[in-house]
Structure to design on (416 residues):
């Protein structure tokens, strides 16, 4: 059917969109082309290779040895990279840069995200363009994507970019900038963050407001300690903001708030999550006289008659156990083991993650069993990750909130 004159503009728009997506797909194919080529050539090489019927170390040398036991020249030649491969790869990277700069908004953001999948040495040549996009691009979604990736990469050269982004009018850009400053530990940003924090309302659970408090804690900055005590005391302060303030005192190491935190921990009229946050903070302050109040809370939970009530106190129980482990109270290890064996997969998951984060070698046998036979997929994966952390094969992730209690608005799913 012929297209009427009135339909031509719409048709042109659709054609442009389709051509842009085809271009992006071409970029992806170019980037992945070498991998497909290797996969295709591998079986052909195996089929064409002559069968080696002799035993090793007899008349015929192994595939990588000559008759004199030296490296086979042919094998060495085969291992050499295609002399044109570097140029071809550079063209692919240049094309990706062009997509980041000149493609439509959605494709630009997709191209930025794809930089995270490049090798580390290839990512380096994208850092400067990403910094410029984060600072000056007219598209707020592109700025957000650029700041997010720089934060993910923990690019220490982006400190000034992150600080400038704190004044961005788009809140998600500010949120990612705060995360970046925390990840690169940009201590010089604390003054500006505190200035902005004092302008917040604190009446809603706003992720930028909470992000400011958390970033100051990550920077071990006590500059906001007194101010946040006043914010916490106000009747109209949002509950999630109050909880973030409790965590702030522990993460920032504000020891002067130990007694105040202990009061929240032991107050049965406080909600369970806030008490859990107080337990977490006390564990991080590592004051020896916090041991007895924490043990008293565990005794309180054990003495609850209803299994339903005990289940409702699981978050508090886990955080009290974690705090006591941080305080080097080995008598609490059986409690952590019991949590790792709980019928509730979410309880097991948190316990296993805590074992890994704290590198508790006494539970290696338990972790090895769970890494092979645990019925929950997420717990099984966490057990293997915990083993890798204990064995030094993997670092505990920076900014990981495994040790923090989950509020009603940030519950974790098991995925089993």
């Amino acid at each position: 059917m012929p297209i009427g004159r009135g339909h031509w503009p719409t048709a042109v728009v659709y054609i442009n969109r389709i051509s842009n997506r085809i271009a992006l797909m071409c970029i992806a194919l170019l980037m992945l082309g070498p991998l497909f080529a290797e996969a295709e050539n591998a079986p052909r090489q195996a089929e064409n290779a002559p069968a080696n019927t002799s035993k090793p170390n007899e008349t015929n040398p192994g595939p990588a040895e000559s008759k004199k036991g030296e490296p086979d020249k042919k094998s060495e030649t085969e291992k050499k990279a295609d002399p044109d491969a570097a140029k071809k790869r550079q063209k692919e990277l240049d094309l990706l840069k062009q997509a980041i700069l000149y493609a439509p908004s959605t494709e630009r953001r997709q191209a930025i995200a794809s930089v995270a999948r490049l090798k580390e040495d290839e990512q380096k040549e994208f850092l400067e363009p990403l910094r410029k996009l984060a600072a000056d691009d007219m598209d707020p979604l592109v700025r957000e994507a650029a700041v997010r990736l720089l934060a993910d990469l923990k690019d220490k050269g982006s400190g000034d970019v992150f600080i400038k982004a704190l004044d961005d009018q788009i809140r998600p850009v500010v949120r990612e900038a705060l995360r970046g400053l925390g990840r690169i530990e940009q201590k010089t940003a604390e003054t500006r963050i505190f200035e902005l924090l004092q302008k917040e309302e604190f009446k809603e659970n706003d992720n930028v407001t909470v992000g400011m408090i958390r970033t100051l804690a990550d920077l071990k900055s006590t500059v906001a300690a007194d101010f946040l005590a006043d914010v916490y005391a106000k009747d109209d302060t949002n509950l999630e903001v109050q909880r973030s303030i409790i965590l702030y005192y522990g993460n920032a190491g504000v020891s002067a708030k130990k007694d105040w935190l202990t009061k929240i921990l032991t107050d049965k009229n406080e909600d369970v999550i806030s008490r859990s946050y107080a337990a977490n903070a006390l564990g991080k302050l590592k004051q020896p006289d916090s041991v007895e109040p924490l043990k008293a809370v565990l005794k309180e939970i054990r003495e609850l008659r209803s299994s339903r009530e005990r289940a409702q106190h699981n978050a508090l129980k886990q955080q009290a156990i974690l705090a006591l482990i941080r305080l080097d109270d080995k008598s609490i290890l059986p409690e952590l083991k019991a949590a790792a064996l709980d019928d509730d997969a979410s309880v097991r998951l948190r316990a296993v993650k805590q074992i890994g984060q704290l590198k508790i070698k006494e539970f290696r046998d338990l972790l090895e069993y769970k890494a092979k036979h645990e019925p929950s997929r997420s717990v099984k994966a966490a057990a293997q990750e915990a083993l890798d952390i204990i064995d030094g094969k993997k670092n505990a992730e920076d900014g990981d909130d495994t040790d923090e209690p989950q509020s009603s608005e940030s519950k974790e799913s098991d995925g089993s």
The chain has a mean pLDDT of 84. The two ends are 52 Å apart (CA to CA).
